[in-house]
Design goal:
Elements lengths: L2 E5 L3 E2 L5 E8 L9 E7 L6 E7 L4 E3 L7 E6 L4 E6 L8 E9 L2 E5 L3 E5 L2
Parallel strand pairs: 2-11
Antiparallel strand pairs: 1-3, 3-8, 4-5, 4-9, 5-6, 7-8, 9-10, 9-11
């Protein structure tokens, strides 16, 4: 059974960098045919795909967030990390990590609320 768990600060100040980590158990993030993604849901809005890292390490980003987003991984810890730069209150959302590529995911983390506020 694959399990994903997001971790990181729940409050970030405007203009700072949001950094979240997804810890994966029950499966390796380096397996070639699997992809690992970050998705968010702002209050009152739908799900928004942010980016994906493949088992190979290749990364793919939403065009609307590409200039501010970076996804990396620590294979020794079986973790992958999201960094979102220059955040604004519009980046307030529940952030999810999931296995799969946009738009098909089979395992999700429980989600973590991130609020951008001074």
């Amino acid at each position: 059974q694959v399990q994903l768990q997001e971790s990181g600060p729940g409050l970030v100040k405007p203009s700072q960098t949001l950094s979240l980590t997804c810890t994966v158990s029950g499966g390796s993030i380096t397996t070639n045919y699997y992809y690992w993604s970050w998705i968010r849901q702002p209050p009152g809005k739908g799900l928004e795909w942010m980016g994906t890292i493949a088992g190979s390490g290749s990364t793919y980003y939403s065009s609307s967030l590409k200039s501010r987003t970076s996804i990396s991984r620590d294979t020794s810890k079986n973790q992958f990390t999201l960094q979102l730069n220059s955040v604004t209150p519009e980046d307030t959302a529940v952030y999810y990590c999931a296995r799969g590529g946009n738009p098909i995911y089979d395992y999700w983390g429980q989600g973590t609320q991130v609020t951008v506020s001074s």
